[in-house]
Structure formats: structure tokens, C-alpha cells
Design goal:
BirA Bifunctional Protein, domain 2, about 325 residues, alpha+beta, binds ligand BTX, SH3 type barrels, seven-stranded mixed sheet, 14 strands, single chain
Length: about 325
């Protein structure tokens, strides 16, 4: 299987240009018949291959998977996605990414899984991650910022994901503070930022992004069918996960760079432009109390400003928000 995938990688990197069977046979040190057999295997895996007589082979269409090399092909980022670990299945990409980060994985390393058996949300809640239907990925960043700025990365990531969804699908999702991306009242994406830090500051940020892409209603766990939606349900078409994953990585690089260089102000504006929360009457459930009021905005630190009926302005650092 590895040789087969290496061949796919080789052909994809040649783009439109066919590569001859003879040349591939020489490069891989195998016979032309073996090359031909690998091509048949690629076709079974969902690749469409054009074999041009005398000239060679060319991939005209890749299957909808998130193999490292197919996500990297044409990605054109500086660092995010330079290293990608793609897994058919894992408990949670967050767990894998934490481990890789501890072992010294480079800034911008990405972990992607086709299936998560124990995908997680905030506060140890579950994230339903159907096989091959979504983008379940964790991105390791090593920004040189103090730990108290970590929560802002959730907001930056939300802007990146919304812009990528708009770009690839034309849909217009909204952001609900701090980490949900919605269509109407239904959640299409969750973002979870976790931190590895020590006395010297942030060692690594692990940004977990879960996007419901091609689920139909019955692909969701019964417990979330009423509150979840997917890009396919919203658009009525099948969305190319690879293109979307690539665009998310590009946007994540663009907006985290912007944040590190220029601070939160330009991102605050972008965030507010896509916000489903600002100006709305909301209920904020926190661990100790629940407040109701109007969400007036977010501060430069990403803290939600909630004005209660008695006129007081409250800074909300962490809560579940319900739109009333
Ligand atoms: P959250 O705590 O804000 O949301 C979790 C809640 O969302 C659940 O309690 C459930 O009600 C609902 N929910 C669960 N699964 C889905 C779903 N597929 N679609 C819509 N609603 C759902 C949000 O946490 C952060 C989720 C991050 C997920 C990514 S996936 C890649 C990475 N790995 C991992 O384990 N988590 C992150």
C-alpha cells in the first residue's frame, strides 16, 4: 500500500504532465507490470487515472480522503501542514497531537483522522465524529505569546474556519461565542483550544477543529440530531473535504500570523462581522451562575461583554451561551 500511495504522490506532484511507466519503474525499482498493478489499485481506491499511450500516467481526480500528501498537494502554506499525520482512526486527534507536541513536533504540525472514537468537546463533553464525513483535525502551534492569550486563538480559529467555509462552499455561517459555528441554531463546527505550558510560557497550543461536512441526518448520533447540521445538509451538495481542509489550514495560517503580528484588533472586527451573538439577548451559563442580558461585544482580549437588565456590564471569560 505504501508504494501505491508513493506512486499517487509522485503523479500528483507532476500535475497535468503524464509520467511514463518506464520512468516510474526506474524510479521505484519495480517492473512496468508492477506499476500497472499499482495503478489498478489506485483506481480501486477512487483515483481516476488517465493513461496516455506512449506518454504515461496522470491522475485526473483524487478520492475524497485526507491523506497527508493529498492535503499537502497545492497547499502552499509556510508552516501549517508541513507535517501531517493522517490516521484512519483514533480516539481523539487532540490526544495524538498532545503526545506529538510533547515529543517535540514542529510548529504547524497537523493530525487528521477519518474517524474518532472518542472525539471530545469542552469540559469532557463528546464530539460525534462520523467516519469519513467530517474534518477531524488538531493543529499544533507554538506561538511566542503569554498563556493568557491562548483563548483568543479559539476566536482566531473560528474566523479562519468561517472564511474557509465561505470560500469553498459559498455558505454564510455565523460564530457563536466562543467556539461554535452555526447555521441558524444548529452547530456545524466546534473548536477546542488546549494548552501545554510551563514556567517559560506556552509550549504548545493544540487547536482542535471538528467540521461536520458530509453527514446526512442519520449519520449523526441520535443525541445530537436536533442540534447538529453539516455543510452538505446546508448546501444540498457533497462538499470536497480535501479542498475545505486545505482552505482551513491556509486561513488558519493567515489569521494566526495576522494576530501575532498586529494583535487582536483586526481579528476582532472580522470576528464581530460573523458573529451571531453580538447585539443579541443571550443567556450565559457559567459554572457558578447564569446571567441574562444583551451581548454588547467582545473586548480586545476576546472577553464577552454582557449587559444585564440592571445596566451592569459583565465580562464573561467562559460560558455556554444560549441565544434567547
Ligand atoms: P463543545 O463542548 O462546545 O460542544 C460539545 C457539544 O456539542 C456536545 O455536548 C453535543 O451536545 C454537541 N455535539 C457533539 N458532537 C457534535 C457534532 N458532530 N455536531 C454538532 N454538535 C455536536 C466543541 O465542544 C469542540 C469540539 C471540537 C472537536 C474537535 S474534532 C478534532 C479535535 N479532536 C477532538 O477530540 N476534538 C477536536
Amino acid at each position: 500500500i505504501t508504494v501505491t500511495l508513493e506512486l499517487a504522490k509522485r503523479l500528483l506532484s507532476a500535475g497535468e504532465e503524464p509520467v511514463s511507466g518506464q520512468q516510474l519503474a526506474e524510479e521505484f525499482g519495480i517492473s512496468r507490470t508492477a506499476i500497472w498493478k499499482h495503478m489498478k489499485e489506485l483506481e480501486e481506491m477512487g483515483y481516476e487515472i488517465d493513461s496516455v499511450r506512449k506518454k504515461g500516467y496522470r491522475i485526473t481526480k483524487s478520492p475524497d480522503n485526507l491523506e497527508a500528501f493529498s492535503v499537502q498537494n497545492g497547499l502552499n502554506t509556510r508552516k501549517i501542514g508541513n507535517h501531517i499525520t493522517h490516521l484512519e482512526q483514533c480516539a481523539s486527534t487532540q490526544i495524538v497531537a498532545h503526545k506529538l507536541a510533547q515529543e517535540g513536533a514542529a510548529d504547524g504540525t497537523v493530525v487528521i483522522a477519518e474517524l474518532q472514537t472518542e472525539g471530545r468537546g469542552r469540559l469532557m463533553r463528546k464530539w460525534d465524529s462520523a467516519h469519513g464525513k467530517g474534518i477531524w483535525m488538531s493543529v499544533i502551534l507554538r506561538p511566542d505569546v503569554p498563556p493568557h492569550q491562548a483563548p483568543q486563538f479559539t476566536l482566531v480559529a473560528a474566523v479562519a474556519v468561517v472564511r474557509a467555509i465561505q470560500q469553498v462552499t459559498g455558505l454564510e455561517p455565523m460564530i457563536k461565542w466562543p467556539n461554535d459555528i452555526l447555521f441558524g441554531a444548529k452547530k456545524a463546527t466546534g473548536i477546542l483550544t488546549e494548552l501545554q505550558s510551563d514556567a517559560d510560557g506556552i509550549q504548545a497550543l493544540i487547536i482542535g477543529i471538528g467540521v461536520n461536512v458530509n453527514q446526512q441526518l442519520d449519520d449523526f448520533d441520535a443525541s445530537v440530531q436536533d442540534i447538529a447540521t453539516s455543510l452538505s445538509l446546508e448546501s444540498g451538495t457533497i462538499v470536497n473535504r480535501r479542498e475545505l481542509a486545505q482552505e482551513i489550514l491556509r486561513c488558519l495560517e493567515r489569521y494566526t500570523d495576522m494576530y501575532i503580528e498586529h494583535g487582536f484588533s483586526p481579528l476582532k472586527q472580522l470576528w464581530e462581522a460573523h458573529s451571531a451573538t453580538i447585539g443579541k439577548a443571550v443567556r450565559a451559563r457559567m459554572s457558578k451562575e447564569t446571567l441574562e442580558g444583551i451581548a454588547e461585544g467582545i473586548t480586545e482580549d476576546g472577553v464577552l461583554q454582557l449587559r444585564t437588565a440592571d445596566g451592569k456590564l459583565h465580562g464573561i471569560y467562559s460560558a455556554d451561551i444560549e441565544l434567547k
